Amino acid sequence: MKPSKRSRGATALAAVAGVAAAAVVLSVAELIGAFFTTRATPLIALGSTFIDFTPLWMKNFAVETFGTNDKAALFVGMGVTILLLACVLGIVAYRKWALGVAGVLLMGAVIVGSVVTRASVKPVDAVPSLIGTAAGLVVLRFLITRLWRMQEWPDQAADRAAKEPERPATTRRGFFAAAGITAAASAIAATGGRMLSAARSNVAAARESLQLPAPAKAAAAVPAGVQSKAPGVTPWLTPNKDFYRIDTALSVPEINAQDWELRIHGLVEQEVRLTFQDLLDARLIESHVSLTCVSNPVGGNLAGNAKWLGMPIRDVLKMARPTQGADMVLSTSVDGFSASTPLEVLQDDRDAMLAIGMNGEPLPLEHGYPVRMVVPGLYGFVSATKWVVDLEVTRFADNKAYWTQRGWSERGPIKTMARVEVPKSFAKVPAGKVALGGTAWAQTRGITKVEVQIDNGPWTEAVLSDEASLITWRQWSLDWDATPGPHYIKVRATDGTGQVQTDKRADPVPEGASGWQSVMVTVE
Ligand SMILES: Nc1nc2c(c(=O)[nH]1)N[C@H]1C(S)=C(S)[C@@H](COP(=O)(O)O)O[C@H]1N2
Ligand SMILES: [Mo]
Which InterPro entries match (predicted)? Predict the structure, then answer.
């Protein structure tokens, strides 16, 4: 059947039909997917693919603008993109059905492609997306046929009514009812699917009941005065629930500790496989280590400090015995993220570990349960692989990690950074004595000095809080006699090698932001 008259109204309705059909494809795939797997479900896989194909500048923009809400922002972006494409799909199908079919099949192919290219999936994981595609096609055909009927001239309608008396003409209201019911059913199916996937997973419960062993080497005692004297400064030890989270995982990978296995291979004399029980039985160490994200802008809060429990990676490497020429370990997570860490950093005496505990608890799921890497002194993107399942001893010349392939550097030593936390940027404070304070870090080098400059005055040394170690951040405070008016507070740190933090501004890409933070406050 061909449309005989066209109106702008019909085009809009066709767009609605496209959206309803796309919703059916996704929701049916998601609901059926819930019975197949709890990880590479179609929506999550599609989202991950969307992330992988998001241009670098947009990703950086998302992280810089939305911080740890970057995922929500990407989801919204994906939703809008799908919505627009679905509108086009409906209009195309209305004008030329064959093209509509091609469009739905293309959509199905993209979803199937996303699912099967995720790490650790089986071919059967494609089945839900195929069924979803078929369902979407049926719904699209149903709705578009209704539209064609609505657009018939009266004589055509009468003609057809005579031939097919059991099929009454469609009204706009009937069309909207059909599209609306489809959309509502899709929303319910998609939500149900997501909830079912979540409920099927019992990893969270297993984590709750896991008893961590005591370390063979306990963490060094933390001096009493590590916390900044200025009220309102970040706690020196970051509680797990407040620890920043940055990763490419749209749904948190759920790995059963009993199923977890780590393979250490590549340029080694002895390939090694470790189970979670092997880790529990190993000589564990505990250590406070501050992590920092390379995407952290100057003054940003993508950094945290926790007490980690784990097996030293150098012990694992001793078992595997790297061969001549190896200079890097490529660590890969269950979801395909990877990091390139210099081999020597994992062999020296810093506390690089395969961590299983964070602040006295098993790793939270979002922070890498059951096992992640923690490497003092390096940004997370080249070292802190969560949900780690594979260590390949290799060479920088032969292998590139996830972010290096996307324009970031291959190595990532943490740059010296000082932050003003109180008062907050653009705060209004009363004149008189104002407590300034914040945090500084230069993991593995330590912080020996923090200086503050008010407007263009002299640099004044701040009071440093106690130092716990060279691999943890260090806090500072300074009393300032504030005079009315607008003021700029600048801060800079000096590391343990005597190097003053550079004032040269650099963007986070490719190897971390630099420059001095400057905070504007108004004194009243
Ligand atoms: N599997 C996996 N591990 C990962 C990442 C990731 O995207 N996937 N991101 C890394 C980055 S960029 C950082 S900064 C740290 C952050 O660790 P956190 O989320 O526990 O703070 O994890 C690292 N480990
Ligand atoms: Mo990061």
Answer: Ig_E-set, OxRdtase_Mopterin-bd_dom, OxRdtase_Mopterin-bd_sf
List CB contacts of 154: < 8 A, sequence separation 6 or more: none
Q: Whose CA is nearest to atom 6 of ligand 1?
A: 247
- Is the pLDDT confidence value at 24 over 60? yes
Confidence of residue 168 (pLDDT cuts 50, 70, 90): low
| Percent of the chain at pLDDT exceeding 70 | 94
Ligand 2 centre to CA of 294 (Å) is 5
Helix runs in 37-96, H state only: 42-53, 56-66, 70-95
Mind listing the pLDDT tens digit for each residue in 315-337? 999 999 999 999 999 999 999 99
State the distance between the two ends of the chain, measured CA to CA, in whole angstroms.
75
Residues 6+ apart with CB under 8 A from 53: none
What's the rounded Cα separation, in Å, for the pair 516 and 438?
Answer: 13
Cα-based torsion angle of the residue sequence 187, 189, 192, 193 in order, rounded to the nearest 10 degrees: -120
| Pocket flag, ligand 1, residue 404 (CB < 6 Å) | no
Residues 6+ apart with CB under 8 A from 174: 146
Atom of ligand 1 nearest to the CA of 248: 7
Domains, the chain, ordered by start = 5-200 (no CATH), 240-406 (3.90.420.10), 417-523 (2.60.40.650)
Ligand of minimum distance to the alpha carbon of 372:
1
Q: Return the structure tokens found at 437.
A: 């304070």
CA 388 / ligand 2 centre spacing (Å): 15
* pLDDT tier at 197, thresholds 50, 70, 90: confident
Average pLDDT over residues 175-202: 85
Decide: 385 in ligand 1 pocket, CB within 6 A: yes
The one-letter amino acid at 224: A
Residue 77 has pLDDT above 90, yes or no: no
